[in-house]
Specification:
Helix content: 25-40%
Shape: elongated
Radius of gyration: 25 Å
Order of helices and strands: HHEEEEEEEEE
Number of strands: 9
Structural class: alpha+beta
Distance between the termini: 34 Å
Mean pLDDT: 89
Bound molecules: copper (II) ion
Low-confidence stretches: none
Strand content: 25-35%
Number of helices: 2
Largest sheet: 5 strands, mixed
Length: 169
């Protein structure tokens, strides 16, 4: 819910930086003695625009799937996960294999970490469980079985026992 403000502040600060750049460029152009020769300037200009194009292509190609469109209408299953000192409430705790699962993760008291592990104790994904916020993480289980949920954020005396299961069928 704070993200639009953060985005707005970032854009404003980018505008400020851009304005400073523009001012510096404007004022440095007045000093003709320091200007490079026409040929050097040609190379430099070519390099500059080449890098701009490469930057745009790389940014578009790598940032397109971000932020993850977890709200998209598809056949995703929604699971609510709530952390509390010191247990997890996961509803439903049984999910289908091969279908995207959207975990909506929150906390009823302090910060917890929602980490999901496979049977070999390899972490598959994790997100923060924060009071007042719902963090979403999307995962598709490719294998059936029992997956463990561990708390990833020290949250008090019995933090180590904050273990739960997700059954994938
Ligand atoms: Cu914890």
């Amino acid at each position: 819910m704070m993200q639009p403000y953060v985005l707005l502040i970032s854009l404003l600060l980018m505008l400020v930086v851009a304005a400073i750049f523009w001012w510096v460029v404007r004022h440095s152009a007045a000093n003709a003695r320091l200007r490079p020769s026409g040929q050097v300037e040609g190379y430099r200009s070519g390099l500059f625009w080449g890098l701009v194009v490469v930057g745009i292509v790389v940014a578009v190609a790598t940032l397109r799937p971000w932020p993850y469109d977890v709200g998209a209408a598809d056949d995703a299953v929604t699971v609510m996960a709530t952390g509390s000192q010191w247990s997890w409430e996961i509803v439903p705790s049984e999910v289908p294999v091969g279908r995207p699962i959207v975990f909506k993760v929150t906390s009823s008291d302090v910060n917890h970490g929602f980490g999901v592990y496979d049977s070999e104790d390899t972490m598959l994904f994790q997100t923060q469980a924060m009071p007042g916020y719902v963090n979403q993480v999307r995962h598709t289980f490719t294998d059936a079985g029992k997956y463990r949920v561990l708390c990833m954020e020290y949250c008090g005396l019995v933090h180590h026992d904050m273990i739960s299961d997700i059954e994938v069928k």
